[in-house]
């Protein structure tokens, strides 16, 4: 297989919910090892597009290819082992401890994670191995989110999908966890797609920013290009928010 094969490809991918075209004929390739942010207003189709990758949503038309293979041809448990997924709102099982939550994917696939592997996954998100025995309701929001990331990585996936992973966190925790995930992406050689409504986060973490609006990709730019004014009106409206804040802060500091 040539190494230039995209990790993910959308081919005229379309998903409707009644009258709503949530994803409207999207075609694009995502290169292996890239960190892509999918940004856009609420309801623009970000979550739906992300879920077509791991078949939580089946497109009405078009297809999605994972490392060259149509995801419809893939067996769903196999697919979910190749794709780590951090849910919007994390969704830990409240009656299972942290170790059991982290091991749930492999367990459903018929294997048990060793305590040392759970410790290694916890270490990856900067938590001590002793957290394995804690219950989700004993953890802070940031810690729960870290467990969500560790759980997504439990099956050694090539691809990491995250749906607003840091949405509910305070800004300091959010920043630290964002940086940590970017490091994991780099050291594990992942291909990452992160949904966020926060353009600042997208600009700071991603190699490539896709801006979605009404089911379509309105802009497909590097952070640099966006900061240089590229991507069109919708993208620039989103970029203006952190830029104006930065300018206002710089003025205050003078
Ligand atoms: P985003 O993640 O950008 O907020 P979504 O992908 O969740 O957007 O939703 C895109 C559009 O599809 C919205 O209009 C939403 O109401 C609609 N939608 C999403 N999921 C469903 C569903 N399961 N049933 C009906 N409509 C849905
Ligand atoms: Mg969403």
Automatic annotation (TrEMBL):
Question: One biological process GO term for this chain?
Answer: quaternary ammonium group transport
Extract one GO molecular function annotation from the record.
ATP hydrolysis activity
Q: Which UniProt keywords apply?
A: ATP-binding, Nucleotide-binding, Transport
Q: Which Gene3D superfamilies match?
A: P-loop containing nucleotide triphosphate hydrolases (3.40.50.300)
ABC transporter domain: residues covered: 8-239
Q: Which Pfam families match?
A: ABC_tran
SMART domains referenced in this protein's UniProt entry, alphabetically: AAA (SM00382)
The answer, when asked if Nucleotide-binding is one of the entry's keywords, is yes
UniProt superkingdom: Bacteria
Q: Which InterPro entries match?
A: AAA+_ATPase (IPR003593), ABC_SmlMolc_Importer (IPR050093), ABC_transporter-like_ATP-bd (IPR003439), ABC_transporter-like_CS (IPR017871), P-loop_NTPase (IPR027417)
Please state what the protein is called. Answer: ATP-binding cassette domain-containing protein
Task: Output the lineage of the source organism.
Answer: Bacteria, Pseudomonadati, Pseudomonadota, Alphaproteobacteria, Sphingomonadales
